[in-house]
Amino acid sequence: MGEEEKLNMEGKASPVVTQTPQGRDPLKGGLKVDYEAVIGLEVHVQLKTNSKIFCPCSTEFGAPPNTHTCPVCQGMPGVLPVLNRKVVEYAIKAALALNCRINPISVFARKNYFYPDLPKGYQISQYELPLAEHGYLEIETSQGKRRIGITRIHMEEDAGKNVHGELGDPHSYVDLNRTGVPLIEIVSEPDIRTPEEARLYLQKLRTIMRYLGISDADMEKGEMRCDANISIRPKGEKRLGVKTELKNMNSFRHVQRALEYEIKRQHRILEEGGEIIQETLLWNPQLGVTETMRSKEEAHDYRYFPDPDLVPLKVSEAWLNEVRSTLPELPDEKKVRFMKSYSLSAYDAEVLISSREMADFYEEAVKAHPSNPKAIANWVMVELMGRLHAENKNIQNSPVSPQQVAQLVALIDRGTISGKMAKEVFAKTYQTGKDPQRIVEEEGLVQLSDESELEVIVERVLDEHPDEVKKYLAGKTKIVGFFVGQIMKATKGKANPQVVNKLLIRKLQERG
Amino acid sequence: MEKISRSEVLHVARLARLEFTPQEVEEFTHQLNRIIEYMDQLKELDTEGVEPTFHALAQTNVMRDDQAKPSLSQEEALANAPDRDERGFFRVPRIIQG
Lengths: 512, 98
What we know:
Strand content of chain B: 5-15%
Strand order of the largest sheet of chain A: 3-7-8-11-1-12-13-14-15
Order of helices and strands of chain B: HHEHE
Largest interface: A-B, 56 and 38 residues
CATH topology of the domain at 6-42 in chain B: Histone, subunit A
Shape of chain B: flat
Helix content of chain B: 25-40%
Number of domains of chain A: 3
Distance between the termini of chain A: 82 Å
Low-confidence stretches of chain B: none
Number of helices of chain B: 3
Low-confidence stretches of chain A: 1-21
Radius of gyration of chain B: 23 Å
Largest sheet of chain B: none
Mean pLDDT of chain B: 89
Largest sheet of chain A: 9 strands, mixed
Number of strands of chain A: 17
Structural class of chain A: alpha+beta
Shape of chain A: elongated
Distance between the termini of chain B: 47 Å
Number of strands of chain B: 2
Oligomer: heterodimer
């Protein structure tokens, strides 16, 4: 992968520092300067097909060892791999969603190395002519929007799984069920500057893969795996420092922590005048450190060549358009539309589009009560998500339906119940699944908005508290809150607060 | 000047997990150089404007539908295994230290 430096995102030309006044090369370290990190990510995403990429074995997860293999994925002599059309479709979807250019012709290549989980002695991948190139992904960081370039996306087969025995066991164990499960590898440009950006990039990738329905992209399940190339350099320097490669980061948090640690480690070495060694490091989440990979010397000499068993892949304009027509609305577009159509803040829209299911839930609720999308957003984000989150559930398991959220907001908007009452009703709907309307009827939870009825109560409360009335008239207007409380108590919380406030002020002034 | 050195032959042999006697190394170095020299003759052709060939066949897009079919049984899958365990894993010498 090319690591040539590009213009930075803002297109600003940064001053090139190659020599310090002392005549030292800043990349060689030994200086107290501000460093920035240069990070590129290689992400593997497992595609959710029924069968493997080059043979019809099932991709089902969790089967007993070596029960989903055949002569093709076992690498027996004389077999021929045949490409799964769905893998190409899914990969095209990903490429389009990541703004890539799809190569009209792409070629599968053999990547040669020996490892027990790779029965053929080579992995079928793409090298010189990958499926897609030159894309990008936009992330929303705390410093604003950043565009991260995507170098390439290619298709390849997964390897099997190695299981290592207990300490002292001289064996490892190999399960080839995963061998040949389809993957796409998404390689970013070295455009990422902070661990936070790396995490946001991965989270955005996951969201897009899920929107596309091509992968669940769960890092903890290995459906999305990430390796990072990272180096540091003084701010403003255009050349790249010596990089290390980080592996074994199995969650968003691990990626961020590993990168944070590695930046500090490289920083310390350079400041002490040392040299970074180009090497592969493994993140050790228990100790919170990166460690030199102790496995047998990595060859990194893969002798790629076009796989003679697979003919070139041609993606016609017609095929491309066909796939393009099946693309769903993507997160970025959805966010803009939510902000426009429902007058939501960028933050609210971002939360609501974080999954397709959540966005659909919200829109269904708005459809059932179109006049107040902002209130529906609040109920979904605060009350509903709060409860789901506390129970470790997601929106798909919500005991409250979108229509019920809409009904609740409608009840408030019509003045039938107060916001405070609505919270109780919501809690009951959440627990029992009963419609808010029914709960309101069954429990007689109708808000008291009738002025003549409330007037009687207001007068009575004022009569009962002559001292407080005096205080109010003497200018202590904050005491209104006390009267509101008394009235709420008298009405068991059913009084309409707006009406009560209006009446109170009027009646108090009448006594002045 | 030889195109392929003795050390390159040894490097490739190591990547392919092959062991050669010193005589074999000499012999293969010589033979590989002759092959490369032969390839050099092709360089004399003018290939301006000729698309690179990635495959001997003119065919493209040989694909199948995404339908899962039954696999080998675990016993069949392990029939050629040099070693296996009772859970149905291939057993190999330990890969990582520890």
